[in-house]
Design a protein that fits this description.
about 75% helix, MetI-like fold
Length: about 350
């Protein structure tokens, strides 16, 4: 037991150190980008302002200090959670991201649930019966998700389910007009509506969530299907599975106790990559559906040449990527004894 705890502590420590190095690299890149964009003062006051006013603002923002000192100040600010001030709203970027992050997390969580249920199930049953109906369906979904951009899938879904069939609500925001938002507890409208017993808000939130979640899931699910299918097919053709069949073990035991269990490690790694990908690729989906999340915030900031929020969103995406990989590593460490033995 003591050796297991020591191995766990060493493993987690290595992963945390790797995360710190990744975030340091991202912070260094964002710092370099801010300096390559030129003097941000001109974005605030324009090109026609007196030089004295510009010099004063440069001094107030610390841009006249040596570059190494600016870099250290920037790292200390990021470590405190200070991602800068929006040049348009004059509000801290972290505050504005916190207001929009629950909407993005709700969308990504819904898409991940669809990927977990649909992608893994399709991958498993496709591997069990290659060439069957489920396998052909999974290959069609894979080709569809790989070949069509997410914004185009979103536009098609809006055209079919909102414009033609009238099944979906107006793709604007998270709630229909006239629906009162529940009291904010988690920031996730579906969860908050359930906690408040607000069934009208719950139905409206689910109705607005379905199409963007399907759009996001269709883009990311092909990799999950393929990894699950191909890895499981290799496992099913391995020697120990053939031996288990020769001993007359039931197919259900072979598939779900031995084969699927050994398929967990690559699938968990792929899901971690998928979560990070979804957090950083909601930009177009949120724009198409007018979803008030972090992605739409980044797009609006680009239109307004407000680069501090953009860099904040980039740093946030890197953080979620790193945390997703950390969770995947911990799950892998827990289920795979070969890693614990290293």
């Amino acid at each position: 037991m003591a050796s297991w705890l020591i191995a766990s502590a060493i493993y987690i420590g290595k992963r945390l150190l790797a995360i710190l190095l990744v975030l340091l690299g991202v912070a260094t890149i964002t710092f370099a980008v801010t300096r390559l964009l030129g003097n941000p003062v001109y974005l605030l006051v324009g090109q026609q302002v007196d030089k004295e006013i510009i010099d004063n603002m440069v001094h107030q923002m610390g841009l006249d200090r040596p570059l190494p000192e600016q870099y250290l100040r920037y790292l200390m600010a990021v470590a405190r959670g200070d991602l800068g001030i929006s040049r348009v709203t004059q509000r801290p970027v972290l505050v504005e991201i916190k207001l929009r992050l629950p909407a993005t997390l709700e969308l990504v969580t819904a898409a991940m649930l669809l990927i977990l249920v649909g992608g893994i199930s399709l991958g498993v049953f496709s591997a069990m019966r290659p060439g069957g109906a489920v396998d052909r369906l999974s290959q069609f979904i894979t080709r569809l998700g790989v070949s069509i951009p997410d914004f185009w899938i979103g536009l098609i879904l809006i055209y079919v389910f909102f414009f033609l069939l009238k099944w979906a609500p107006v793709p604007l925001g998270r709630l229909s007009p006239g629906i009162h938002s529940p009291s904010q507890v988690t920031g996730l409208l579906v969860v908050d509506s359930l906690l408040a017993g607000n069934w009208a808000a719950l139905l409206s939130a689910l109705g607005h969530l379905v199409l963007p979640a399907i759009t996001l899931a269709l883009v990311a699910v092909p990799s999950t299907i393929q990894i699950t299918r191909n890895t499981l097919m290799q496992i099913l053709s391995s020697d120990y599975i053939r031996t288990a069949r020769a001993y007359g073990m039931p197919s259900r035991t072979i598939y779900f106790r031995y084969a699927v269990r050994n398929d967990i490690v690559p699938v968990v790694t792929m899901l971690a990559m998928t979560f990070g990908f979804l957090m950083s690729s909601t930009v177009l989906v949120e724009t198409v559906f007018a979803w008030p999340g972090v992605g739409l915030y980044a797009v609006n900031s680009m239109y307004q040449l407000d680069y501090e929020p953009i860099l904040g969103v980039v740093f946030l995406s890197a953080l979620f990527y790193a945390l997703a990989y950390l969770v995947a590593d911990l799950i892998t460490f827990a289920v795979d004894p070969r890693i614990r033995a290293q």
